[in-house]
Amino acid sequence: xxxxxxLASPPEKFWHCSVKVTGxxxxxxxxxxxxxxxxxxxxxxxxxxxxxxxxxxxxxxxxSVSEITIxxxxxxxxxxxxxxxxxxxxxxxxxxxxxxxxxxxxxxxDLTYELLFAGVSTEPQAPDAAMVEQICKRLPHxxxxxxxxSRRGKAPFEITDEYDVQDLLHAxxxxxxxxxxxxxxxxxxxxxxxxxxxxSIEELGILIEVKYVRGPEDQKRIFEEYSQDLVLYAEWAxxxxxxxxxxxxxxxxxxxxFEKLTATQEIxxxxxxxxxxxx
Length: 279
Prior knowledge:
Elements: E1 15-21, E2 28-33, H1 35-48, E3 52-54, E4 57-59, E5 65-72, H2 77-90, H3 103-107, E6 109-110, H4 112-116, H5 127-147, H6 162-176, H7 186-190, E7 199-201, E8 206-212, H8 218-233, E9 241-247, E10 263-267, E11 270-278
Parallel strand pairs: 8-9, 9-11
Antiparallel strand pairs: 1-2, 1-5, 3-4, 5-6, 7-8, 10-11
Helix pairs in contact: 5-6
């Protein structure tokens, strides 16, 4: 998994990158780059805020990107395409839909965060922002109290998915804050139907994204979603702090690996804090 990949001495081959620009239908994909090529043509320009190109698509700035993935594989793209084709033939399937260029990105080691979003040490928080983070950390304690209502003959409030977490968080924040606590502001800001955020506090510049863990296999999913979420939420004009609340984190394979995601980020000229809360 990407959290264990050592970039102190990265392998020179084979590196792959896919980019989807906001409004585009398809991904632009480049395969089999050397690490030197990847660093010179994509990673370096991204971190310096300069334009770059992927397979003929020019990316003017990180703000125009809706999805980006960088992955490493031990073998070239063709080997994954041949393996896939052989599997399809053995199953009697004529697969014309799968983009063979995307196969290494799905099967390789995802290093998007390490290369593009590692950031720097986090900046100090304002008192109200620190209180919001503390509420997120203590949320499971409130959930346990509400789950025991059945002994008084009351229906318990059970946390079974991220929507239950959002409802409890929203209600708890309203008890503490004099500010407006809203849900899902990004469709109006970013103009994209799929742009969603769970809780926003505009006066404090805080967005809270909730991830609910169902089992150890969610480790990879949350790592992959994190990099894409950063690009999306950086579009919010008021953003100062993004809180990444990972609920039921004890069920992850390696929850401590997420602690390194707490950092100060700068994307598209916007600088903001990212705070990861394991709850």
